[in-house]
């Protein structure tokens, strides 16, 4: 914006200064021309800067800072996987998948995750196979050109809750539930934002009106979100007996979604640590052998 304004605002003064500079060169000798050149350049720069500054303050749009428009900034939480020497909490990933499967998957897809991705991370091969086989997938055509249903396989991706975007909007009052595969990467604040959003449903404060069909949540831009509160204490029963409080479920599903956005995270971190630590370890070994 500043460059555009300054270009328009200084066009006429620059022409006048260039004209004056040309006339001064014709009227002066070599010595005086050099002196005039410096003076005209200085005048040109001063006029350009002054005109641009005045134009900016006259024509620039006013800047407004409204926290409600951007959403309340989430607190930074001490996620275990953020530590340079820690990987994901895999027990939390397993619980988080349970929350996604029993709660979130009713509206949200996870298009980038296949059943095989869970193997060795949160579930065994047999567990992942059993879950996949509970779902019927479209396949074909067969030898006769017909499509058919079959039990899921490890190579299949997690099923979508709706056949298309139109069906998703029709079931959610016109709102399209986003795919959650990269949600922690796609939202400013990442895991902190997702956790805060899931636990941030309150009654609107006095003077704040939320139109019908929306729900007050200060962490969502604008303060009103079309997604109703999804997590309540004891909504599910964890397999490992962990108390299913709202904050615990929010923590676990956020951890799971953080992993889903970067399934290679643990491997990449381990390789990076090896690359950094190995030379130092080698030096220590050399010192001890000398």
Automatic annotation (TrEMBL):
Residues 91-243 form the Cytochrome c domain. Heme c binds at residues 104, 107-108, 227. One of its GO terms (molecular function) is heme binding. It is found in: Membrane. PROSITE patterns: CYTC. GO terms for cellular component: membrane; mitochondrion. Keywords: Electron transport, Heme, Iron, Membrane, Metal-binding, Respiratory chain, Transmembrane, Transmembrane helix, Transport. Gene3D superfamilies: Cytochrome c-like domain. InterPro entries: Cyt_c-like_dom, Cyt_c-like_dom_sf, Cyt_c1. The chain crosses the membrane at residues 40-59. It comes from the Eukaryota. Its cofactor is heme c. GO terms for biological process: mitochondrial electron transport, ubiquinol to cytochrome c. Binds 1 heme c group covalently per subunit. This is 17556_t:CDS:1. It comes from Acaulospora morrowiae.
């Amino acid at each position: 914006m500043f460059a555009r304004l300054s270009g328009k605002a200084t066009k006429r003064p620059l022409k006048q200064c260039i004209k004056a500079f040309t006339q001064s060169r014709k009227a002066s000798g070599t010595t005086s021309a050099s002196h005039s050149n410096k003076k005209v350049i200085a005048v040109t720069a001063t006029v350009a800067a002054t005109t641009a500054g005045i134009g900016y303050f006259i024509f620039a749009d006013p800047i407004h800072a409204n926290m409600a428009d951007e959403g309340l900034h989430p607190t930074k939480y001490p996620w275990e996987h953020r530590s340079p020497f820690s990987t994901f909490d895999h027990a939390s990933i397993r619980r988080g998948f349970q929350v996604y499967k029993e709660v979130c998957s009713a509206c949200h897809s996870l298009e980038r995750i296949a059943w095989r991705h869970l193997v060795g991370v949160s579930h065994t091969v047999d567990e992942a196979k059993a879950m996949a086989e509970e779902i019927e997938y479209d396949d074909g055509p067969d030898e006769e050109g017909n499509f058919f249903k079959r039990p899921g396989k490890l190579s299949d991706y997690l099923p979508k809750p709706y056949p298309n975007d139109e069906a998703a909007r029709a079931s959610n009052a016109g709102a399209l539930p986003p795919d959650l595969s990269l949600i922690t990467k796609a939202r400013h604040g990442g895991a902190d934002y997702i956790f805060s959003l899931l636990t941030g449903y309150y009654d609107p404060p006095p003077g704040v009106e939320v139109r019908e069909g929306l729900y007050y949540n200060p962490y969502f831009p604008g303060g009103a979100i079309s997604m109703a509160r999804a997590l309540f204490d004891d909504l599910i029963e964890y397999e490992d007996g962990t108390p299913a409080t709202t904050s615990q479920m929010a923590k676990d599903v956020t951890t799971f979604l953080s992993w889903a956005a970067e399934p290679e995270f643990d491997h990449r971190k381990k390789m990076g640590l090896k690359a950094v630590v190995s030379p130092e370890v080698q030096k220590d070994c050399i010192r001890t052998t000398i």
